[in-house]
Write a structure and sequence with these properties.
Elements lengths: L13 E4 L1 H7 L6 H9 L3 E7 H11 L6 H16 L3 E8 L16 H7 L3 H15 L5 E4 L9 H16 L7 E4 L13 H4 L7 E8 L8 H9 L8 H6 L3 E8 L8 H21 L4 E3 L22 H7 L3
Parallel strand pairs: 1-2, 1-8, 2-3, 3-4, 4-5, 5-6, 6-7, 7-8
Length: about 325
């Protein structure tokens, strides 16, 4: 398609598909996985590229994106997704709470450490320039810049996100960027409040939050709305964003990984999932992608029971909102 000028409510609903599956651990997976996602009702897939995979690529080749076998596989997965009629949210630098950084203790989403030890900010921007060059002709690809950023000064985040967006758009002028909420410290500081003081100020940006049911002890709509719009610790300050014209989505959500599956928890999480999706739709979010498309390893967050698209109880609850 030609350049995309806007996204309707729910246009980016779907699931998360990680490089641990499509690259590292499940080599037999093919285009059928994207077909299953489409059959579920997905409109988008968030394709994760784990930072530790990029670290391995850099060690072997000198560049985060220097492994041509890896890049060829990514090309193929993206082509399968777009052929299936899905938007691709390319989470091309998936920093997270683990594995640890090069000092053996610092998670790689602690960006003030990570981008002075494992990579530099300049290398990060250059990776996004490469992604833009590689996928800029595919208007169905959106670029999600970094995952769950913590411990980063807001002025640094503003500057580097702008540089990354500009690098992508050197080859893809109409490309959409996805920018996550950020924390200057640990998780209690993460919110969208940076847009009030250090705005990104670029067109074609969707701002993203993450939300999990295990952060709640109340699965009611009222509790979900309070956390979404509130401005205190562990709250998103997202009502301000909507009131001031920012487009929002959630590139991760799920019920909870700290509970072993049991009947009571399954019932609780099903209620939370349905209420959360109802509230997000009512708020006008452009979409949400569920964590994650996997058959095991995440206890209460696995969407599948097998690689033939069969939904787990958690996945079945999610499908109602796609």
């Amino acid at each position: 398609p030609g350049p995309i000028t806007s996204f309707g409510v729910g246009a980016l609903r779907g699931v998360v598909y990680d490089s641990d599956q499509w690259w590292a651990k499940e080599p037999g997976l093919g285009s059928e996985q994207l077909t299953y996602m489409k059959a579920w009702g997905c409109k988008a897939v968030r394709i994760n590229v784990q930072a530790y995979t990029l670290e391995a690529n850099k060690k072997a080749t000198g560049k985060a994106l220097g492994n041509e076998a890896f890049m060829a596989r990514l090309d193929t997965v993206i082509s399968w997704a777009t052929a299936a009629g899905l938007y691709v949210i390319l989470n091309g630098f998936h920093t997270s709470t683990g594995p640890a950084g090069s000092d053996g203790s610092t998670p790689n989403n602690h960006l003030d450490y990570y981008f002075t030890h494992d990579f530099s900010w300049a290398e990060w921007v250059e990776a996004w320039r490469t992604y833009g060059q590689r996928y800029g002709k595919n208007a169905r690809v959106l670029y999600e810049l970094v995952n769950e950023p913590l411990f980063v000064p807001l002025a640094t985040y503003q500057e580097q996100v702008r540089l990354a967006i500009d690098a992508i758009r050197a080859s893809a002028p109409g490309a959409w960027a996805v920018v996550q909420e950020v924390g200057t410290g640990n998780w209690e500081t993460v919110s969208f409040k940076f847009e009030q003081t250090n705005p990104i100020d670029r067109p074609n940006v969707i701002y993203s939050l993450h939300e999990y049911g295990y952060h709640y002890r109340d699965n009611s709509e009222a509790a979900i709305k309070a956390k979404f719009g509130g401005t205190g610790p562990y709250q998103h300050a997202a009502d301000w964003m909507l009131a001031n014209g920012r487009a929002l989505m959630a590139t991760e959500f799920g019920a909870g990984r700290d509970q072993a599956p049991n009947a009571a928890w399954d019932a609780w999480q099903e209620t939370w999932i349905k209420n959360w999706m109802k509230v997000m739709t009512g708020k006008g979010l452009k979409g949400y992608t569920a964590h994650r498309w996997v058959t095991g390893g995440w206890t209460a967050e696995k969407l599948l029971t097998d690689w033939k698209g069969t939904a787990s109880p958690y996945g079945a609850a999610l499908k109602t909102g796609l």
